[in-house]
Amino acid sequence: MFTACKPTSSIITSKEVAVKKGIYSEPVLAQNSNVKKKNNKKDFVAKQVTPSVNQRETIKIYDHNASDILINNEDSNYLIEQLINSASDNLGVNYRAGGTSPDGFDCSGLIFSTFKKFDIALPRSSNEMAEVGTQIDPGKAKKGDLIFFINRGQRRINHVGMIVDINGEEIKFIHSSTQNGVIISSLKESYYERTFKQINRIIE
Q1: Which residues of 117-148 are buried (b: 16+ CB within 10 A; e: fewer)?
Q2: Given the residues 175, 180, 181, 200, the one annotated as active site
Q3: In this structure, are residues 158 and 150 in contact, taking their beta carbons and an 8 Å threshold?
Q4: Distance of CA 191 to CAs 2, 135, 174, Å?
Q5: What share of the chain is helix, strand, coil (3-state, %, to 5)?
């Protein structure tokens, strides 16, 4: 079980603070049906299967919310931006062992439920999640990558978060800690520098 990280002055515990720091942007609902939505699809489902001609008409890629949400950054990957916004909606939610809902999340429960909203099935535990995707050098990390830690003298990965911002060499990630619930922390904090294990890319 993940043991809480020590709180620091740099942690972000609410959407309001995240907005001020430029990490989280409030979704903009499209008011005009003629407005085109930024939808930089990477054919995530198509990479997992090779459908026949008849199947292609029925396969759908669920990389959008129920409402039409606009992403203003032309370089943004729409799916990754929505994963980050979806996870950030839970900032301040309490930690709950085994939790996968706004009533409370554990670390892997937050990531599992966030990706599940977009029909991306991840393993339930952080250790199993670490076996999915492609391991990435920290210097090449991107928003949306998963970041893993080994805490309290454990021998295997037991904590996971999702990268939400990269500012130079600083990596910030959203996760659920036992003491503070869902927060955004920095890999530059000494606790996370000591316990960092790896970064995995789930979505190219």
Answers
A1: ebebebeebbbebbeebeebeeeebebbbbbb
A2: 175
A3: yes
A4: 13, 22, 15
A5: 25, 25, 55
Residue 186 in contact with residue 171, Cβ under 8 Å?
yes
pTM check: above 0.70: no
Report whether 159 contacts 149 (CB < 8 A).
Answer: yes
Q: Which residue has the tokens 């996370």?
A: 192
107 belongs to the catalytic site: yes
Q: How far apart are CA 22 and CA 135, in angstroms?
A: 27
Helix H segments across 24-131? 44-48, 53-56, 78-88, 107-116, 126-129
Give the per-residue pLDDT at 186. Answer: 98
How many Å apart are CA 60 and CA 7, to the nearest integer?
Answer: 42
Q: Is 175 a catalytic residue?
A: yes
Tell me which of 91, 107, 163, 202 is the catalytic residue.
Answer: 107
As given in the structure block, the two tokens for residue 7 are 């709180």
Average pLDDT over residues 161-187: 96
Q: Which residue of the set 15, 143, 159, 172 is catalytic? A: 159
C-alpha distances (whole Å) from 47 to each of 81, 198, 204 are 20, 23, 10
pLDDT tens-place string over residues 102-127: 999 999 999 999 999 999 999 999 99
Q: Is 159 a catalytic residue?
A: yes
